[in-house]
Design a protein that fits this description.
The complex is a heterodimer of chains A (170) and B (276).
Chain A: H1 2-14, E1 15-16, E2 18-28, H2 33-44, E3 49-55, E4 60-65, H3 73-82, E5 86-101, E6 106-109, E7 112-116, E8 122-132, H4 140-148, H5 154-157, E9 159-160, E10 163-164, E11 166-169
Parallel strand pairs in A: 1-6, 7-11
Antiparallel strand pairs in A: 2-4, 2-5, 3-4, 5-8, 6-7, 8-11, 9-10
Chain B: H1 4-17, E1 41-52, E2 57-71, E3 74-83, E4 91-108, E5 111-124, E6 141-152, E7 155-166, E8 183-196, E9 207-220, E10 225-237, E11 241-253, E12 261-271
Antiparallel strand pairs in B: 1-2, 1-12, 2-3, 3-4, 4-5, 5-6, 6-7, 7-8, 8-9, 9-10, 10-11, 11-12
The chains are: A alpha+beta (170), B mainly beta (276).
Chain lengths: 170, 276
């Protein structure tokens, strides 16, 4: 009996439903408004982005995603990089539905595998913000720091069994 | 007699004086190590005006430049110029192609260190007259170099070093004595500073930037040199269009030059995603 409950709980944890509605991305390597506008224009052109609100002083962009669309963080990162800059931060607003969070376990949210690092094991419900810690979404220093907090090889490559894994913390 | 040390001190003092502000690095007389956004197009129209002491009159060069952002690391420029600097009437003078490849980019919030390599090749119909080697219309030739740019939260500094070859036909005429230099090292040190706005609210605010650039050349073979200083102001409208106004004048030189000072005004438009 215990075994059955464990399997059900594990399946629930691994295949939770969630909804990614908003995010804040910060671009690095720029100060001027003209550079900021290039990033703003690039993010606005991303198909699943509905609205972009730029804070030029902070170099941050509040993104609202089109409901029901597939949010691809790599596409957001590529938009910033193609504009000529780098991503220093990506924080994503996610709705959790009784999701069990653990470190070093691949949890699927919105059909996308997430690997949580440096989180307190807990069950999460409601809207929470997760921060991407993948390579090219944080500074080199932070990438090395998070690399030490996980022993799994997927952090370096961003891939496991041919599927893209996003590494996040909270 | 070249006295670079006192001028380097002057530039350093000016750089430290700009310590409490944001800075720009969209230089007027040189290129930064940064690239244009991928798939963007920029169009620039420049007028250079000077008093040519040999011809004893005011002369102008009109330059039209197209800049293509091929990808995040590579950009290509094509340029044509018309002038009356080497002729009695204004006519087509030169064409040039320039490519820049950004090979290093370390970014942090409001700062970066970048390096690029560039190369250019120009055709010019002008006769050899002056000692100064320039591929901006004066001579045909080739040039290659490295650019390093540091953007700090409050300051932007850029430096370029390059090698230039003057490919005028007279170079290959062994029966003529050498009257102009054929090869030179070019170097520059530039700084930029944002005067307005003090706080960014939106993309429609006009930006006013000031620049000061040190531009130098030293030729080999015939040992000639110059070092110029070029202050400039730049107005950016709608975060899209730039108006530049610069004045370049000689600090020290032993060259026979067309002029020891010149004015430059240019207009540049950026079209994002124009090449997509």
């Amino acid at each position: 009996m215990k075994k059955i409950f464990f399997i059900i709980a594990a399946c629930m944890a691994l295949n939770s439903q969630a909804q990614i509605t908003k995010a804040t991305i910060q671009a690095s390597g720029l100060t001027c408004a003209m550079c900021s506008k290039a990033v703003y224009t690039a993010l606005s052109a991303v198909p699943f982005v509905e609205k972009v609100k730029a804070n030029i002083e902070e170099s941050t962009y509040d993104l609202t995603f089109k409901p029901g669309s597939n949010v691809d963080f790599d596409v957001l990162g590529k938009a910033v990089v193609n504009a000529g800059f780098s991503v220093s931060m990506l924080k994503v607003n996610t709705h959790f539905h009784a999701t069990k969070l653990q470190n070093d376990v691949h949890i699927t949210l919105d059909n996308q595998p997430f690997h949580f690092i440096n989180v307190t094991p807990q069950t999460v419900d409601g809207e929470r913000t997760v921060t991407l810690v993948d390579k090219n979404f944080v500074s080199v220093k932070d990438y090395k720091k998070y690399g030490k907090l996980t022993s799994m090889k997927c952090y370096e490559s961003g891939v496991m069994d041919g599927k893209r894994i996003y590494h996040v913390t909270m | 007699m070249c006295k670079p040390n006192s001028y380097a001190v002057l530039v350093c003092v000016m750089l430290f004086a700009f310590n409490h502000s944001f800075a720009q690095e969209l230089y007027v007389f040189t290129e930064p190590a940064s690239n244009m956004p991928a798939h963007s197009l920029s169009v620039k129209q420049t007028v250079k005006s000077l008093y040519n002491k040999t011809d004893a009159r005011n002369e102008n060069r009109y330059t039209t430049e197209l800049m293509f952002g091929l990808n995040k690391n590579t950009m290509v420029h094509t340029t044509v110029s018309l002038s009356d600097m080497y002729s009695s009437n204004l006519h087509f003078e030169s064409a040039k192609v320039y490519a820049k490849y950004r090979f290093l980019s370390n970014d942090a919030v409001h700062s970066h260190f970048r390096m690029s390599a560039f190369a250019e090749a120009s055709y010019s119909r002008n006769d050899p007259v002056f000692d100064e080697i320039s591929l901006d219309g004066d001579q045909p030739g080739i040039q290659a170099g490295i650019i390093a740019t540091q953007l700090l939260h409050k300051l932007a500094i850029s430096s370029t070093i390059s090698w230039t070859e003057n490919m005028q036909g007279i170079r290959w005429e062994k029966s003529f004595p050498q009257i102009v230099p054929y090869e030179a090292v070019n170097y520059s040190l530039s700084a930029g500073y944002l005067l307005f706005p003090k706080t960014y609210r939106d993309y429609n605010q006009p930006n006013l930037n000031v620049y000061v650039e040190l531009l130098g050349q030293r030729t080999t073979g015939l040992n000639k040199y110059f070092i110029d200083i070029a202050p400039a102001v730049q107005l950016i409208l709608n975060s899209t269009a730039k108006i530049n106004l610069g004045y370049r004048y000689q600090l020290s030189s032993n060259m026979n030059r067309m002029s020891d000072k010149s004015w430059l005004i240019s207009f540049e438009w950026l079209f994002l995603n124009a090449l997509k």
